[in-house]
TrEMBL record:
Organism: Terribacillus halophilus
Protein name: Bcr/CflA family efflux transporter
Gene3D superfamilies: Multidrug resistance protein D
SUPFAM superfamilies, A to Z: MFS general substrate transporter (SSF103473)
Domain Major facilitator superfamily (MFS) profile: residue ranges: 12-399
Cleaved signal peptide residues: none
Length: 405
């Protein structure tokens, strides 16, 4: 009997993980095609990177909409509509006649893909609690970290026998499969009597209280700002690796996957250190590593240093993200149990919204300059450090004083 329960749980976890991985596939799968697309569209590196920005912005804003919609209308209906729209928009991306329309479609693609990220986690919250929920969230987190490893490789595999449009046809087919899985594989997990009212007034009230919470916003901003550095890397390295260092699209995909492995290794280090070191100390160590590695990246690009030095610095920066992400999420969510859904949406949306800001900055000097990338990624760690000091450390230092008065 237990084996049957475990098999069912595994199938459910893998099913939800497929929806959770849609975001990374949407962002990463076409990365190795960016230089080719720039020439096909007869546009600039900055404009072609704006298509990445648009998808990130869509993923960020979409989470803030899809979550509350699923609270009002249940999980299946918004998920089904979103996946069907994802299929249609992805096909439209494949046949875009110009860069302007492509950017608009990429925003729409990211917006509807965000439903997979938010609603898959909402279903977990509906169905599981305690240790079971921890296990499911751990699996979904692992998949979200593995997806960026395989999505660029899958994209380069597709473009090895077809054009970049084939990547979006592949994504369209993926959306169609997920539409079918929603119809036949997902059961409604939120009964009608437990759904929220159609009035979004309470939702905005919760968001307002989170914004006013200095500690929460401090950790959320550190997490979001540093992840915007990851998106700067995602946007800039296809041009830097291939145009400046002569890396092939296939090798680029392998190197991109290795940096994704850095995030996983950082997360595993946190797992080993938890219980032995204070979480705040682990967080501070990860933040220090981010500052050191991004400073190294800036120096390497300024002197046009060897590729190995640049790659190792980016790999260690990815490891720093792997350290900071789970700890910052835990520290931010500690006192937000009563509005955990809204808090999770803010944390997730900030990553993509800030990533939408940094992504186009790395291309402002053209496709053959890495200096804007170096400056942008270094500034993310500095701004993250400032956010931590002002919002978290000062707030913590002020607490004892207020208690003693």
């Amino acid at each position: 009997m237990d084996d049957k329960i475990n098999d069912k749980s595994l199938r459910t976890a893998l099913l939800l993980a497929a929806f959770s991985a849609l975001g990374p596939f949407t962002v990463d799968m076409y990365l190795s095609s960016l230089p080719t697309m720039m020439h096909d569209f007869h546009t600039t590196a900055s404009l072609i990177q704006a298509s990445l920005t648009a998808s990130l912005l869509g993923l960020g804003l979409g989470q803030l909409v899809a979550g509350p919609l699923s609270d009002v209308h249940g999980r299946r209906k918004p998920l089904f509509i979103s996946m069907l729209l994802y299929f249609l928009v992805s096909i439209a991306c494949a046949f875009s006649p110009n860069i302007g329309l492509f950017i608009v479609l990429r925003f729409m693609q990211g917006f509807v893909a965000s439903a997979g990220l938010v609603i898959s986690r909402a279903i977990v919250r509906d169905r599981y609690s305690g240790v079971e929920m921890v296990k499911f969230m751990a699996l979904l987190t692992m998949i979200s970290n593995v997806a960026p490893l395989i999505s660029p490789t899958a994209g380069s595999a597709v473009t090895s026998f077809t054009s970049w449009g084939g990547v979006f046809l592949f994504l369209g087919i993926l959306g169609l499969i997920l539409t079918g899985l929603t119809t036949w594989g997902i059961k409604e997990s939120l009964p009608a009597e437990q759904r929220a009212a159609g009035d979004f007034k309470d939702v905005f009230k919760n968001y307002g209280s989170l914004v006013r919470n200095r500690s929460f916003m401090g950790y959320a901003l550190v997490n979001g700002i540093l992840f915007s550095g990851v998106f700067a890397y995602v946007s800039g390295t296809p041009f830097i690796y291939q145009n400046m260092y002569g890396i092939s699209p296939q090798l680029f995909s392998v190197l991109f996957a290795l940096n994704g492995l850095g995030i996983i290794l950082g997360s595993q280090l946190v797992k080993q250190l938890s219980g032995r070191l204070n979480e705040h100390h682990i967080f501070q160590g990860g933040l220090l590593l981010a500052v050191i590695t991004t400073a190294t990246i800036l120096i390497v690009v300024l002197i046009h240093g060897p590729f190995v030095a640049l790659f190792l610095a980016i790999f260690l920066f990815a490891a720093a993200i792997g350290i900071i992400a789970p700890v910052s999420f835990t520290l931010a969510m500690e006192s937000q149990g009563h509005i955990a859904g809204s808090a999770a949406a803010v944390l997730g949306s900030l990553q993509f919204a800030l990533g939408a800001v940094t992504s186009p900055l790395v291309g402002i000097a053209g496709e053959n300059s890495a200096v804007p990338f170096g400056i942008t990624i270094f500034m993310t760690s500095i701004l993250a450090l400032i956010s931590y000091v002002i919002l978290v450390r000062r707030s913590a230092d002020a607490t004892p004083a207020s208690q003693n008065s």
